[in-house]
Amino acid sequence: TGSYPIPSKPVTPFPGVVKYLPPDRAAEAPKSNCAQSRAAMAKPNPHAAKMLTLYGENFNKADPVTVFFGADPSPFVEVRCTEVVGCLPPESQSQKRRPIILVRSDGVVFPSNTMYP
Questions:
Q1: Radius of gyration of the chain from Cα atoms?
Q2: Which end of the chain has a smaller Cβ tally under 10 Å, C or N?
Q3: What is the rounded distance in angstroms from the CA atom of residue 86 to the CA atom of residue 13?
Q4: Rounded to an integer, what distance in angstroms lies between the CA atom of residue 8 and that of residue 80?
Q5: For residue 14, how far is the Cα from the chain centroid?
Q6: How confident is the model at residue 101 (pLDDT cuts 50, 70, 90)?
Q7: Are 117 and 82 in contact (CB under 8 A)?
Q8: Rounded to whole angstroms, how far apart are CA atoms 99 and 116?
Q9: What's the N-to-C CA distance of the chain in angstroms?
């Protein structure tokens, strides 16, 4: 019998990725009502040149998700507000398209239909 951990809290509302913008297009981002996202664009960030901006819903600063690209976790994830997450793509040079997957700290996995690159 496979035993699966029971999530420590409700699974909903679950975070989801709607789309992402690569670093060179983040300036075209829809003006979200997320002040922290705008602030993040304004302050220098050593990762900024490579950061992807994920747009979605139900992101939680208090319980940030890990972002996976296929099987590879992002080395840096920054929840800016409930609708915007910045993250670095993994260093692996794989050019094949991989799904962007969110994993919560208690192990609950939220697949998305968004592919990278």
A1: 14
A2: N
A3: 20
A4: 24
A5: 13
A6: very high
A7: no
A8: 6
A9: 37
Q: What is the DSSP string of 6-50?
A: PPSS---SPPEEEEEE-GGGGGG----S-HHHHHHHHS--TTTTT
Section 32-54 average pLDDT: 70
Q: Under a CB-based contact definition with an 8 Å cutoff, are residues 89 and 116 in contact?
A: yes
pTM over 0.85: no
Q: Given the structure tokens 């220098």, which residue do they identify?
A: 44
Q: Dihedral of CA 109/113/114/117: which sign? A: positive
- Tokens 């990725």 found at: 17
